[in-house]
Amino acid sequence: MDYLERAKQIESDLNAIRQDLHRHPELGNNENWTSDYLERILRGLGLDVRRILGTALVATLYGKEKGKKVGLRADMDALPVSEATNCAFKSLNDGTMHACGHDIHMTAAIGAAKLLSENKDHLNGDVVFLFQPDEEGKGGAQRMIDAGAIDGVSAVFGGHVAPDLPVGTFGFRYGKFYAASDVITVTVHGKSCHGATPEKGRNALLAAVEMVSALSTVHAPNNDRCVFTIGRLLSGTACNIIADKAMFSGILRTLGPENRNYMRQAIKETVAKLDAEFGVSSEVEIRDSYGGVVNTDAETSLFEKTSRGLFGDDRTKILDEPTMTTEDFGYFIDACSGSFCHIGAGCTEPLHSPTFLPDVKAAIYAAALYAKTIENYLKTT
After folding, report:
1. Could you count the other beta carbons within 10 Å of the beta carbon of residue 208?
2. pLDDT digits over 225-234, tens only?
3. Fewer C-beta neighbours within 10 Å, C or N terminus of the chain?
4. At what angle do helices 11-23 and 32-44 cross, to 10 degrees?
5. pLDDT recorded at residue 380
6. For residue 25, what are the CA distances in angstroms to 34, 35, 62, 96, 111?
7. In this predicted model, what pLDDT tens digit does every residue of 27-50 receive, in sequence order?
8. Measured between alpha carbons, how far is 320 from 341 in angstroms, rounded to an integer?
9. Residue 164 bears catalytic tag
10. How much of the chain exceeds pLDDT 90, in percent?
11. What are phi and psi of 104, to 5 degrees?
């Protein structure tokens, strides 16, 4: 099958699906309308659909021949953003919007399901479509894995719209792609006294300020990229009282588990050193947010080569730098293998903007890329 030509032929159908999804955005773990809507379409295509975790869908397309099992993931949740696009299919849910392109992701996956269902007699294995809740919240990927969604799956593919790439262009990266994220909270305990006699106390606020300054100079080894941003500092009850407690918190973004572990330890050691210097005691809380996305080479090579075959070298880009934003797709890769790409969105507004509106053709091209990549993957031994 010529997947690209067929994807173009069903553009009007996919455009209608995209518009329906965009009109009905739902926040994480509340994607009830979305899940019902997608399930009807998937069952209509002949897929075996299983619902887990309330709103997550695991839809399997069985190929004619027995072989490997490959996954394709699309996230479903929207953001608490009030839409300002004034498009004809604007959000009907006040204060909620598909401002991160998940409507495009779902449409592309549905498109791939339709293309592959029409060609299932030529598939050497099975395809599992993973419609994931709560990517923007606490993360639905790991919960889907824990619920058995990818049991027997050997690789998972997926993608995210990218405003900086033209429609019909795809970006790939080998290895480290998205950062891991931690939330760091430090609570400093000192001793109160009158502000006129600071020597009688232990100034938790002053110690915290010094810690914030010192931590801004901590970097990952080998000049690898990392970001540690402190955005909150709370302390004190009155201008003439030495604070006996201070709290500051921020986000840590790192690339790869080695740098993540290094930075976590460096933060703890820096705080401990300043504890001793100021005579205070501190608690360092490190809360996992998302692990990073580290693409596996074999799957990324297949993804890239498939794109070059469909769209040519000019529209297939190897991305020079990883991104310091986060994405929980990495949990699927960690559980088996896989690759994540960037999908040209053809718009100037940034992600999470109230005017973010990718071109539907991004979903058309992505559907063709996904379908052909999956077919090619199932041919490999």
Report:
1. 28
2. 899 999 999 9
3. C
4. 160
5. 85
6. 8, 11, 30, 6, 19
7. 999 999 999 999 999 999 999 999
8. 13
9. no
10. 93
11. -70, -40
Classified by CATH at the fold level, domain 3-175+293-379 comes out as: Aminopeptidase (3.40.630)
Encoded tokens for 257: 């588990």
Identify the residue whose tokens are 């173009």. Answer: 8
For residue 213, what are its two tokens? 């300054």
Among left, alpha and beta (phi > 0; psi -120 to 50; other), residue 312 is left
Q: How far is CA 74 from CA 111, 130, 182, 308, 355, in A?
A: 12, 6, 24, 23, 22
Nearest to 371 by CA among 61, 31, 86, 39: 61
Check if 75 is active-site: yes
Options 26, 39, 126, 136, the catalytic residue: 136
Q: Report the run of H or E that residue 281 belongs to, with start and end.
A: strand 281-290
Residues of the chain with pLDDT under 50: none
d(CA 163, CA 169): 11
Are 264 and 286 in contact by the 8 Å Cβ rule? The answer is: yes
Q: In the chain, what is the greatest distance between 2 CA atoms, to the nearest angstrom?
A: 84
250 vs 228: CA distance, rounded Å: 7
Residues 6+ apart with CB under 8 A from 143: 53, 56, 134
Domains in the chain: boundaries: 3-175+293-379, 180-290
pTM value > 0.85: yes
Query: What are the helix (H) ranges across 129-232?
Result: 141-146, 204-215
- What CATH architecture applies to the domain 180-290? 2-Layer Sandwich (3.30)
